[in-house]
């Protein structure tokens, strides 16, 4: 038996997360979960979001296996390999109704002490094979321990960027000191910059003075200096002799993933990229959960800030190592991120963003010395952060807007970054508007019964035969479809482990096209007579997408979660269209890592985006990261985005009276009110009449709509 394989029978498993207790109460009956036994401990694993109850004394590793949380363990749980390390997140996690403490694990074992003595073990780490559950826990599985790691798919998009950086290298030959000219060494260096590079009023970073004389003499009075061209030109680094290495990093801090791109500032080429899951996920999958965590744990801010900065520092090590560079070579860092990540990265408490009027501590662009926040780059380097547009439309949206340039076109362009909090920009050369909409984590699998993040084995493509209702799937890590021989030959390499975001959108779209779900999103139980794929699930029905070691279903609650998420986003889009005064858009751009893997056709079929010519709907990849790289390589782009953000009209969906109206209409597939004529030219949509909802399904749909509207009002 493979000890690393998850157990097939896990009756206490519960993969869901909820925005409020009423959602939990609504769903428990349908999923058959039993979370009420007080003698068992509730354990939540991050970043997967899977949770369940376990008897006291259960090893954490065994709990992970039962829930299908993949934790590496080469030695079979004997405490030898040290691969199964975990952290315990401490504090009150209100969203999950868990109070987690390291004291809820058994005491440090002799095996762990022996491993720590021989191999080393960080103070906050435990070996999950040795640590026994003694109470409620939130367990963080570090990236290096995940055997089925989520894929971070924020690549550096190819873009030709004119070079005009804020930092330049200057090679100078400094006159040696003599008795006739009693100038200090720093003064003679500055004089050399004036005569040889026509740079005037240059000042020297005070940090360099203690070592400057040694560097000048080591280079025999020939040195290379780095000049930051700010309001006052400043020497920020000095090296002996000639040097032609200058690197910068562009970092997109997402709520789920962090991507770092190392750029050669002399050639403009991106030489290395790396990404990682945002370790803050253990404090909450979505942004408002992290704000809630801080509300419940006022002293938790340093932990959140430390975790994200530590992840970035590790990425700097990775990209510089891959490129054969050093940290000292990195002299510029540009960051983008949503407002909450922006604040947490800077060490600013974001709790004011948790409620109206969603006040930012700072919205303008920021530039400061890298030594103020330890990131592992040259301490004399500079940090630039793009401006935030509004309370929930951040520097990432500003970067994406800069990269895609709706303000440079006459076409009405809609740009959407689909995430736990969707950021929406609409406009053309005349006007640009922006808003955010609280979609929640459903598109990333957190509220889906078999949902997971993008990782090998996750279903990402789905097709359903409308006659037989038989599905075929594609999983990440394998190109073949499930009805091809190659799939059967190679599927053991990855397994079929769950459904990721793009797969969730496609399966809902295919179920709608095949008539399995109605326009109102109700799974038609009468089809059980036609196909054994339609099965009873409590008082509702479910669709069996995959039968294997792990059966994967799409439940009525899953459909509702996607309806709520897509309706919130569409309602935000409609508000911007109302304000702009347009009844259509000419072009749609799907930004972000998730947007890059959504099939635009299926996004339109479920009503995630408005009707548009499909030829003019495209994924634009990591546009926020591209905007960061533009600002890294050319200071003129910094001026452009700083000016544009001042002119963008900000719309707060939370206070707009029509949001609820648009939201209710958008609960239907694709929409109860809006027509989709361009989509109908490409896809045969089901007839409009809606079947009567099942007793529970109807109640839940209406209740779900009300809850989604309240959620939108709270978080908009």
Give a description of the structure.
Helices cover 30% and strands 22% of the residues. With 716 residues, it is of the alpha/beta class. It folds into 5 domains: 13-145, Ubiquitin-like (UB roll) (Roll); 167-240, Ubiquitin-like (UB roll) (Roll), CATH 3.10.20.880; 247-385, Domain of unknown function (DUF4445) (Nucleotidyltransferase, domain 5, 2-Layer Sandwich), CATH 3.30.420.480; 398-441 and 561-715, Nucleotidyltransferase, domain 5; 442-559, no CATH class. A hairpin with a 2-residue loop joins strand 25 (534-537) and strand 26 (540-546). The chain is globular, with a radius of gyration of 27 Å. The chain starts with 12 loop residues before the first strand and ends with a helix.
> How many structural units, i.e. domains?
5
Q: What characteristic shape results from the CA principal axes? A: globular
The tally of helices reads: 19
Q: What is the number of strand segments?
A: 30
CATH topology of the largest domain: Nucleotidyltransferase, domain 5
The structure class reads alpha/beta
Task: Lay out the secondary structure.
Layout: E1 13-14, H1 21-31, E2 40-46, E3 51-55, H2 60-67, E4 85-89, E5 91-93, E6 98-100, H3 110-119, E7 125-127, E8 137-140, E9 167-173, H4 185-197, E10 203-204, H5 209-218, E11 222-229, E12 233-240, E13 247-253, E14 257-264, E15 270-277, H6 287-296, H7 301-323, E16 330-337, H8 339-346, E17 366-369, E18 382-385, H9 395-404, E19 413-417, E20 422-427, E21 432-437, E22 458-464, E23 471-475, H10 485-490, E24 498-499, H11 501-513, E25 534-537, E26 540-546, E27 552-555, H12 556-580, E28 587-591, H13 592-595, H14 600-605, E29 617-621, H15 623-633, H16 635-647, E30 649-650, H17 659-666, H18 677-682, H19 695-715
Parallel strand pairs: 2-8, 10-12, 13-16, 16-18, 19-28, 21-30, 22-24, 28-29
Antiparallel strand pairs: 1-3, 2-3, 4-7, 4-8, 5-6, 9-11, 11-12, 13-14, 14-15, 17-18, 19-20, 20-21, 22-23, 25-26, 26-27
Helix pairs in contact: 9-15, 9-16, 12-17, 12-19, 15-16, 17-19
